[in-house]
Amino acid sequence: MQSKMANALFVIGLLSVWLGCVGRAGAAAAASAVALEGRPPSFAAIAKRTTPVVVNISTTTQKTNRSGNDPLEEFFNRFFGDTQPRENSQRSLGSGILISKDGEVLTNYHVVRSADMIKVKLSDGSEYEARLIGKDDRTDLALIKIRKPGIELPVARLGSSNQLDVGDWVMAIGNPFGLEHTVTAGVVSAKGRVIGAGPYDNFIQTDASINPGNSGGPLINGLGEVVGVNSAIFSQSGGNIGIGFAIPIDLAKKVADQLRKNGKVVRGWLGIRVNDVSPQLAQSLGLGRPGGDMAMVTEVADNSPAAEAGIKTGDVIVEFNGRTVPKSHDFPTVIADTAPGQRVTLKIIHEKREQTVTAKIAELPEESDSQRLESRDAEIGVRVQRITPEAARRLGLSSSKGVLVMEVQPGSPADQVGLEPADIIREVNQRPVNNVSDFDRAVRQGRRGDRLLLLVQRGDNAVFFALKRKG
Question: The whole model's pTM is what?
Answer without folding.
Answer: 0.69
